[in-house]
UniProtKB/TrEMBL annotation:
Native species: Trichophyton verrucosum (strain HKI 0517)
Domain BBC1/AIM3 cysteine proteinase-fold: 117-307
A Pfam family hit: AIM3_BBC1_C
InterPro entries, per database record: AIM3_BBC1_C
Protein name: BBC1/AIM3 cysteine proteinase-fold domain-containing protein
């Protein structure tokens, strides 16, 4: 870990009151400047103070997962395994008097047991997995546009596509990909909690350092996702504009990525039971329009790699639940 990420050297920027915003501006700019952040998450709680007249007591806990330090311009950095947690306490009547503390969590080194060591999933593994399985996954979903697969649920399309790719792999003498297990479809290569104040864009750096890059054939998973699109409708020769807003929500949704327009933050997908009920259709999602919820992207990988897929799993689920 670079020296500039030592706990005592991490800037807190409390004077900017980033933690009082709704939603909080996290990661705040000074933190983002320290290095590549692969994931971030936060939680907070508010309780009325027992002391009359001083308002509500607030506690914010945020966490960031750092990428490994790398000077390479050709290969994106992978996870360092290091997480920085930040806790801020303040009173609603005096946020400028907030106090904060920082804690780094380092990866633990497990001792060797009688079981053989699990091999870590490398960039090469992920690239090879895409080359092996993506063509058959894409061929399957594209050939079923306009049809209903199985029970018509979104998850079923991804599962059947992986199953099809597995059958093809076995016929060619290769191991099959892991089938969807719940909402997990392989190795997690990207996860981000969206907020309106910090859009998911390439220019912001969020999409600029995804391990191995997002590729067609990867699987998109949205949780409590909300997309907001604003556009102007022109009326008459006077070109008078009328503002319109479209909101799209998903409690949980699965889609197969078929096109990646990274600079536009747009993913082309084939999905089932999305905007068209129980039917397979083509669609696209502009991640910069995602204002809440969690987006995850999985790379289908071979079954022998599943147990070792922790290298690129940068999930922070539960990390902010306690200090």
């Amino acid at each position: 870990m670079s020296r500039f990420k030592n706990e005592s050297a991490i800037p807190l920027s409390l004077e900017t009151l980033w933690f009082t915003h709704s939603p909080p501006t996290f990661p705040y700019p000074a933190l983002r400047q320290l290095g590549t952040i692969l994931n971030a998450n936060y939680a907070w709680e508010s309780t009325p103070s027992l002391t009359p007249g001083i308002g509500t007591e607030h506690i914010f806990i945020g966490a960031v997962a750092w990428a490994e330090d790398s000077a390479s311009t050709t290969h994106p950095p992978g996870p360092s395994g290091i997480i920085t947690k930040i806790r801020v306490r303040w009173l609603s009547t005096s946020p400028s008097s907030a106090t904060a503390e920082v804690k780094n969590i380092f990866p633990t080194t497990t001792t060797t047991t009688t079981h053989s060591a699990r091999r870590e999933v490398t960039h090469t593994d992920l690239q090879r997995a895409s080359e092996w399985y993506a063509p058959d996954i894409l061929a399957y979903v594209k050939s079923h546009v306009g049809l209903t697969i199985g029970d018509g649920e979104c998850w079923t399309l991804a599962y059947k596509a992986l199953q099809h790719a597995g059958q093809k792999a076995l016929r060619e003498g290769r191991e099959p990909p892991m089938l969807s297990t719940g909402r997990v479809h392989g190795c997690l290569i990207f996860e981000w909690t969206a907020c309106a104040g910090y859009p998911i864009t390439y220019s912001s750096g969020i999409l600029g350092h995804v391990p191995t890059g997002i590729r067609a054939g990867d699987i998109l998973e949205l949780s409590d996702g909300r997309f907001r699109t604003r556009y102007t409708a022109l009326a008459g020769l006077g070109l008078v504009g009328t503002q319109h807003e479209e909101n799209v929500r998903f409690s949980a949704h699965t889609a197969v990525i078929v096109a990646v327009k990274m600079e536009d933050s747009t993913l082309g997908v084939v999905e089932q039971n999305g905007r068209a009920r129980c039917v397979v259709v083509e669609n696209e999602y502009n991640l910069s329009n995602m204002v809440s919820g969690v987006v995850r992207i999985y790379r289908p990988i071979g079954t022998s790699l599943v147990m070792g897929s922790n290298l690129h799993d940068v999930s922070l689920v539960g990390v902010c639940d306690e200090w």
